[in-house]
């Protein structure tokens, strides 16, 4: 059965639920000339509350895991587009844009690739074929890609991965030639897609964000097809450096690159039952969402704000922190909007408009 037949009843339910919510994040975002998005999981499209909230509130979605190597390329000669296609079709039905994540990362790679002991020339061919096949399959349907994810470490150095550790993927046999090569292949496969470098812990002003800034500035100067930087914005300490983040967004957009906040969540210390240890943290969390979203919306060139999931029910944080932190998102486990939702909504409503929506 066609995917659209499966999803059609969802569209009806979503339209009805949209009538119940006067304000919607996506309307406020559209008015401000930005996209508001969330990571999403194909296997959850069978859950009515999940799809109703997703379609009602967001004009952008990003497959959390369904376009990663391990999911989409599980065996050397197997490519599984079904989960990605389900999310892309859902987005099409609900007039949402799609970000692709991610074409090159050192993690979450399938065993056949990790343990393949491929030569540089073999790895170069495998990566080229993967990028050409995946970006080609979604050409015109995925408007922006995280081409390379988390290639720089906390010291600002290129980190070890099968890609970095096998010189020869790029033309030059050193430095970030392998990163540039991935961007060039992605651009060949879809010249209209916006291509991003995406990283964590590089949101404020730091040695790491200086390295990201220097790398993307150099790439842009030399005509490498790069269009933006993704700042993941995973906040674990309730004390983000707001001024540093604003300064970093400004300096990147001053290069003529876009900034997307790509994976925002604000983790709260929780007790064994998953309840916030300090009720005041809930207000702190809301203020962080408001401040960070304002930093983006009020800076021309910062064109998307995305959270890493939208309901606390399915966040990666509790498992990642072994239960010590949780409740990082803007809808609670029962899909009720939290104070954090109001913080994000207020930023979209009250921040100065960008003017006309940029080429998103
Ligand atoms: O789907 C399998 C399931 O079949 C199996 O039974 C289960 C048992 O291990 O694993 C499931 O796969 C898990 C997958 O999430 C889907 O739930 C993987 O083990 C698990 O490692 C994977 O974690 C994801 C992680 O990236 C690694 O890919 C998280 O959900 C996802 O939120 C996280 O997202 C990353 C971004 O891609 C990059 N930025 C950091 C961010 C957080 O780590």
Keywords:
11 strands; TIM Barrel; 360 residues; two-stranded antiparallel ribbon; 13 helices; eight-stranded parallel beta barrel; alpha/beta; 15% strand; disordered C terminus; binds ligand G3I
Proper CATH architecture: Alpha-Beta Barrel
Tell me the number of strands: 11
Bound molecules: ligand G3I
Mean pLDDT: 93
Total helices: the number is 13
Name of the CATH first level: Alpha Beta
Q: What is the third-level CATH name, the topology?
A: TIM Barrel
Strand content: 15-25%
Gyration radius, rounded: 20 Å
What are the low-pLDDT stretches, counting only 5+ consecutive residues below 50?
355-359
Helical content class? 40-55%
Sheet having the most strands: 8 strands, parallel, barrel
> Would you identify the CATH H-level superfamily?
Glycosidases
* N-to-C SSE string, H for helix and E for strand: HHEHEHHEHHEHEHEEHEEHEHEH
Numbering strands along the chain, what is their spatial order in the largest sheet?
1-2-3-4-5-6-8-10
Query: What sort of overall outline do the alpha carbons produce when their principal axes are compared?
Result: globular
Give the termini distance in whole angstroms: 33 Å
């Amino acid at each position: 059965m066609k995917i659209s037949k499966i999803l059609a009843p969802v569209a009806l339910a979503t339209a009805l639920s949209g009538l119940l919510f006067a304000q919607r994040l996506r309307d406020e975002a559209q008015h401000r000339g930005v996209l508001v998005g969330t990571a999403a999981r194909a296997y959850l499209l069978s859950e009515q509350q999940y799809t109703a909230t997703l379609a009602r509130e967001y004009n952008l979605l990003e497959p959390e895991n369904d376009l990663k190597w391990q999911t989409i390329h599980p065996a050397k000669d197997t490519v599984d587009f079904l989960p990605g296609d389900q999310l892309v079709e859902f987005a099409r039905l609900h007039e949402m844009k799609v970000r692709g994540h991610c074409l090159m990362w050192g993690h979450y790679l399938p065993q056949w690739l990790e343990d393949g002991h491929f030569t540089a020339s073999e790895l170069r061919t495998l990566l080229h074929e993967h990028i050409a096949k995946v970006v080609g399959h979604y050409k015109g349907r995925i408007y922006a890609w995280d081409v390379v994810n988390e290639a720089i470490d906390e010291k600002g150095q290129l980190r070890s991965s099968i890609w970095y550790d096998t010189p020869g993927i790029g033309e030059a046999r050193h430095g970030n030639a392998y990163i540039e090569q991935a961007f060039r292949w992605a651009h060949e496969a879809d010249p209209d897609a916006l291509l991003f470098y995406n990283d964590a812990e590089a949101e404020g002003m730091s040695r790491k964000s200086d390295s990201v800034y220097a790398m993307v500035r150099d790439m842009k100067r030399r005509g490498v097809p790069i269009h933006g930087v993704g700042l993941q914005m995973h906040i674990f300490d309730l004390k983000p450096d707001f001024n540093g983040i604003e300064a970093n967004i400004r300096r990147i957009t001053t290069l003529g690159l876009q900034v997307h906040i790509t994976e925002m969540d604000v983790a709260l210390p929780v007790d064994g039952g998953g309840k916030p240890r300090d009720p005041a943290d809930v207000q702190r969390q809301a203020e962080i969402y408001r401040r960070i979203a304002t930093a983006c919306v009020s800076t021309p060139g910062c064109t998307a704000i995305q959270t890493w999931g939208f309901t606390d029910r399915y966040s990666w944080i509790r498992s990642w922190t072994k239960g010590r932190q949780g409740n990082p998102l803007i809808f609670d486990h029962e899909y009720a909007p939290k104070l954090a939702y109001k913080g994000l909504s207020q930023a979209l409503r009250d921040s100065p408009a960008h003017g006309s929506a940029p080429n998103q």
